[in-house]
DNA sequence: ATTATCTATAGATCTATAGATAATGC
DNA sequence: ATTATCTATAGATCTATAGATAATGC
């Protein structure tokens, strides 16, 4: 038995799961090969089917898990009524970028699969359609209230959320392009995240300024 | 001979090329099937190989064409020295969104292939590394000059370009998600583009305000 | 004579399973 | 007795080509 992977006390099931996650995340469902997954896990190919039966079953399990993470990440609403405008915006941006930082491949994985396999992410869309309006209404009310107090401009919460999401997510979705065009600026990822946190907060606050 | 496609005076080669473009753009290289392409083109599968020899050759041809388009779209620099700040920003945003509007699947296609197949888009990255700094330096000089005149703040041209690109591109990359979360706002695409043109111009101008 | 098209099939690759064997927990 | 693992191979799918036939342009 050749121990070519560092399978320090991980079970075969875990090894396959981990290898499959890596393979599916980087290559997508169509590009992933069950043989490659087994090889990367350091186990016989038959083991793949022994533990997870089919490629599709394992993919469904992984994408369901990822979508759950994504929804939790997106819909962790900031509903504290006593929070100031500055705190609110800072909180939303920081949370979002922290989440992206912890799951850098997630946006790419989801957007990729959405095109080739629309029904796989139907669960995601359904959840969004139900939950997003709830959060956006609370957010809009908050903005309107603060606008009435003269603290900020009265802007559309939907467009504001799209702005925030766009500014935060795009570097992750197009990392090689952004990094290539902007002088290797994403080489140190943590530093880049810190810069973008400040930059995006500033951009949004200026947009909200009365 | 069953004429199941509307091949009004298009040659077989053109029909295959068109079908292949559609297949590759939506499913990526790994997800695309040469049999499906031939079927969609309404020709025998052997014709695919007669005209284009291999799947990879045709893919390379299509991706090269798309990357050329993308580079032209990105690097159509606005270098008119006499342009005011307002005009400059408006021009960049309008051009970019017009380009995206004409090529809505392009960002997804490129970002998808970048992960599974880094060397396929190496040409794109090489071009960007060479050309982007040239444009960004001119842009930075322009900002610095206008800042010295007191017309705008002195901001980093790289971050500003990233902001603009993010705000413009993201809805195209994550269309189903944005559309699902934001109340079907992208149903009428032309209307949505017009709204984002104004919105993004406003966002960026506020960021630049002294 | 060259170009275009078709049928049939080879060849490669990938998913999945059958069936034998070893390890493990009562 | 059940669970885990292996070898070997079936079965499906997909890319690619061979070789025959029809259409086209001199």
Can you offer a commentary on this structure?
The structure is a homodimer of 210-residue chains. Chain A has 210 residues and is mostly helical. The first copy, chain A, has helices at residues 12-31, 34-41, 45-52, 55-75, 85-102, 106-116, 122-148, 157-173, 175-181, 189-208. The longest helix of chain A is centred in the middle third of the chain and has 27 residues, at 122-148. Chain A is elongated. The interface between A and B is large, with 52 and 52 residues. Chain A binds a DNA duplex (26 and 26 nucleotides) through residues 12, 33-35, 43-51, 53-55.
Features:
homodimer, 210 residues, mainly alpha, 0% strand, elongated, DNA-binding
Q: Average pLDDT value of chain A?
A: 90
Oligomer: homodimer
Based on CA atoms alone, the radius of gyration of chain A comes out at 21 Å
Largest sheet of chain A: none
Globally, the shape of chain A reads elongated
Helix-strand pattern of chain A, N to C?
HHHHHHHHHH
> How far is it from the N-terminal to the C-terminal residue of chain A, by CA?
69 Å
Structural class of chain A: mainly alpha
Q: Which bin fits the share of residues in helices of chain A?
A: over 70%
- Major interchain interface with per-chain residue totals: A-B, 52 and 52 residues
Work out the number of β strands of chain A. 0
Q: Give unreliable regions of chain A as ranges.
A: 1-7
Q: Please, how many helices of chain A?
A: 10
Estimate the strand proportion of chain A: under 5%
